[in-house]
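Quick one, probably user error.
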């Protein structure tokens, strides 16, 4: 929670630096606060690395550890410290470390990463649809509306903006003044680009979100099993100790049975023995 609070403080300091008057009047104070945040982040990384001193591979097996290590160590590299723009971007990347402390945000980031292949396919199909409709729009409306359809680039930009349905009403009215069949052009494009393709993208993201949630739950179960698991040597020692206790109990039972004399034979038992002997 302390590191999480320092990350939020670092983000607030970056926001204060955007106000030129405030940044100029309290430059030393802001720089001191930035150095304090960097000191806290460095100490955190040293403590975390020290906790993995006996198993360094486990430290680098976690991608969040690698991300945090790169972000913190980059502040000490000379060629990065001299570049103010790059340094601000690296400081901004520290805000992403909040995902380490927020499981739901971590799931969302993981889902975004897993949705990239499906998103790339969506972008290819969407670009193909926009290109085809842009060519049709250039052929149909270039002479009457050169501002929006004078070239393939302008037509593609116009259709890309129409994907959000913003300005579709004005585009349809302008198209109806050119031809009545333009309503089919805009209606089919709105149906395909704004409804079908966008819903496909939403489906890809939701599917990736489910996969990311399952992966996070599997990692949590694995960490729980690893925390509760005992070392193999300790398990063997426990089994040996249990076996020794069982053998001691068995030996004590045998000694007790040997110390107790057998019971005397009764009249009925003597009669049965005599009968068996006679037979």
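Nope, works fine. Designed sequence:
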């Amino acid at each position: 929670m302390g590191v999480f609070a320092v990350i939020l403080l670092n983000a607030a300091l970056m926001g204060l630096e955007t106000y030129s008057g405030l940044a100029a009047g309290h430059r030393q104070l802001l720089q001191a606060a930035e150095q304090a945040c960097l000191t806290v982040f460095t100490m955190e990384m040293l403590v975390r690395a020290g906790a993995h001193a006996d198993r360094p591979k486990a430290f680098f097996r976690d991608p969040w550890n690698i991300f945090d290590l790169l972000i913190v160590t980059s502040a000490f590299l000379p060629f990065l410290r001299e570049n103010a723009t790059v340094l601000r971007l690296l400081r901004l990347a520290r805000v992403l470390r909040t995902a380490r402390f927020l499981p739901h945000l971590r799931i969302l980031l993981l889902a975004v990463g897993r949705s990239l292949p499906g998103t790339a396919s969506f972008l290819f199909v969407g670009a193909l649809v926009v290109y085809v409709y842009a060519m049709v729009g250039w052929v149909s409306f270039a002479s009457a509306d050169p501002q929006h359809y004078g070239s393939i680039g302008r037509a593609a930009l116009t259709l890309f903006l129409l994907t959000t349905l913003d300005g579709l009403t004005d585009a349809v009215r302008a198209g109806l003044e050119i031809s009545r069949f333009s309503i089919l052009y805009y209606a089919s494009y709105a149906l395909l680009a704004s409804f079908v393709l966008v819903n496909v993208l939403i489906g890809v993201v939701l599917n990736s979100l489910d996969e990311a949630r399952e992966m996070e739950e599997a990692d949590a179960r694995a960490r729980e099993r690893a925390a509760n698991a005992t070392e193999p040597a300790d398990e063997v020692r426990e089994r040996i100790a249990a076996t020794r206790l069982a053998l001691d109990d068995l030996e004590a039972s045998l000694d007790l049975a040997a110390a107790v004399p057998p019971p005397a034979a009764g009249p009925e038992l003597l009669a049965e023995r005599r009968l068996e002997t006679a037979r």
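The chain has a mean pLDDT of 78.
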